[in-house]
Amino acid sequence: MPLEQYGILGDGRAVALSGLDGAIDWWCVPNLDSPPLFNRLMDAEQGGVFAITPRGRFQSRQQYRRDSNVCETVFVTPTGTARIVESLNSGTAGRLPWAELARRVEGLEGWVEFELTIIFGRRADAASPYQSTIGKHSVFHVDRVLGVFVHGDAWQVERSDEGVRGSLRIEAGQRQLAAIVAGEDEPLVVPTVEDIDARIEISDQEWRRWTEGLKYGGPFRDEFRRSALALKLLLFSPTGAIAAAATSSLPEKIGGGKNFEYRYAWIRDAGYTVKAFLAAGANAEAKAAFTWLLKRMEEHGPQVCFTLHGQKVGPEQEIGVAGYRHSGPVRTGNLAAEQRQHGVFGDIFETASRFVDGGNILDASSAHLLARMADLCADSWRLKDHGIWELAEAEHYTNSKISCWQALARAVELADGGQLPTTCRDRWFRERDRIEAWIVENCWSEAKQSYVMYPGTEKLDASLALAVRFRFDGHDRLLGTVAALDRELSHGAFHYRYTGMREEEACFIACTFWIAEAHLLLDQEEAGTRMIRRAVDGLQAGNGVFSEMIDADTGAHLGNLPQGLSHLAHIMALDVMEQRARRETASARQSGA
């Protein structure tokens, strides 16, 4: 199943992928970073699946309910039309204390026969599923996970240790539920069919209520809200961590080998997501994620990424399964965890600055932590690092130096605003200016009329578009840089991460929105708006869920999904567009007055 043909379900703790064919091909229980209960996505033979599929020929279309993460898939067959409404359920008080994947089959016209297939994954042969009878319930066991299949009385089912198989004939006006309730190492509540069914609508109402609080009045209302809803699914509510993505090891190019585990919380991605939540007016989520970031920095220092429970990420290991479309390897762990990345400094200080700009206040403990981070940045900015793209070879990456400048610039501003202690304020000020002078002297190419990826190369790096958002000095040079990025890294409506990536991977979705945002911030409104519209049009193959990368020629999505960096870059670009429109409207009114 192509990645763009999956809908994403979530409950604030886990995420499931539901395809146009009626199959749940990925669901980790109970947590987003748990081993998968279903993983046909990367292990077609033994990964497991929860499929409700019409018999014979059918056509299908999938979409979310408006302003909701409840998903609907309509199946059209020669005998009739039916719909599956599905949700990872929550309740009126928030996330349920168990996992509840609810799928309601509704007859719309004529009649449709469905086949049910539930096969529990073997976790790369590390688990051997079985079923037992406990009281009146048939209970499945997969390692430490236990659960029950709850269904309406019209289903015909047969159970075995492997799973459940069954069938259903649904006619117009009828509805039947099929659901899985599960937990890990905990007593299991077994709700009634009626309660689970009702919670689909409760979940829908709660999603809509949350979305109503978002602040955006621009022309891309639905797209903005869909990206915010996708980001919300990546907020791991038990801790406040923000996962970079909800999947692992989906390839950046089929057969290319760039497959990574992204179910961790990167300081970079989490910081950017906090800013996107603040831009969207989702202050509770922004505060939770910011607090999580500060606590991890206090415990471990400026590490690159952490587990969703705040622990250090383990070494990279390969799992013995085939991978998506036989594009292995499948991995856990991540080598980036041990890298030096100066971008961490800019990310945490930009997040703090945005938080304060929203009228909020830093506590004394957080202020002293940030002051220590500013001192560390001032001491270490001259060192090489592995950059935003986490490359194997350490270099003096220009984006990393700009991130250090950004950190100290924001530290000075926070100190001047009374939010940080001022003891080292003047030192931060002088070091900030030294960084700027170093960048201007070493990282500019007269031939390219652009900042380059690192001194001594003519390679370009799309992440340098972020320098405009970071308010790095030098308007004319930034104009030249953005023009060069667009000229040399573009492919159709999208852009590659940096020079030389055309043969190795697809276009990186976030880069296009970063460059569009930079155009807007540099008063190139027509260019920025045109770029956003082209990108949004190019992403229409899916249902509003963005992966990490896209094949600009075919529209095929690649890499892990939903990818937080893609969605938050989209949100920030749309936010800048709306802010400019508001300012222009206000200016026109003043002129008219």
Automatic annotation (TrEMBL):
Alphabetical UniProt keywords: Hydrolase
Ranges of residues in domain GH15-like: 221-529
Superkingdom to which the source organism belongs: Bacteria
InterPro entries xref list: 6-hairpin_glycosidase_sf, 6hp_glycosidase-like_sf, GH15-like, Trehalase-like_N
One Gene Ontology term from the biological process aspect of the record: carbohydrate metabolic process
Domain (Trehalase-like N-terminal) ranges: 2-76
GO MF term list: hydrolase activity, hydrolyzing O-glycosyl compounds
Pfam families found in the cross-reference section: Glyco_hydro_15, TREH_N
Name of the protein in its database record: Glycoside hydrolase family 15 protein
